[in-house]
Design a protein that fits this description.
One of its GO terms (molecular function) is zinc ion binding. The chain has 122 residues and is mainly alpha-helical. The protein contains four helices and no strands.
């Protein structure tokens, strides 16, 4: 491995770890919004409870997306450690550097991601 490539991988690992930390901090700070909604009628009216339930559902969905993103980051860090980073998990071809720059945790090349998106729409 060249020194330049080693530096790039170090920067990439630092970027992924920073994203990881940010997502974990967001998860901790939003924990309260995902807790069960108290249904005490003396404290909260019907519409307020519905709003609270909707906000709770949105917070849970956001937490699920963060969890998925954390798993993608963990997998990308594993691929870096294994020397498999930058290759599509579906076809094995190299992922475009521009795509990796936008989302360093992406596991698929643009062609395979498009196929997967099309498969999910049908």
């Amino acid at each position: 491995m060249t020194e330049s490539l080693g530096r790039q991988l170090e920067q990439l690992v630092a970027r992924l770890r920073a994203q990881q930390e940010e997502l974990r901090n967001l998860d901790v700070s939003s924990q309260e919004s995902r807790e069960p909604v108290e249904l005490d009628q003396s404290r909260v009216g019907r519409l307020s409870r519905m709003d609270a339930l909707q906000q709770q559902a949105m917070a849970q969905a956001t937490a699920n997306r963060r969890s998925i993103e954390l798993r993608k980051i963990d997998a990308a860090l594993d691929r870096i450690a294994d020397g498999d980073y930058g290759y599509c998990l579906r076809c094995g071809e190299g992922i475009a550097p521009e795509r990796l720059d936008l989302d360093p945790a992406t596991p698929l090349c643009i062609d395979c991601a498009s196929i997967r998106r099309d498969d999910n729409q049908h």
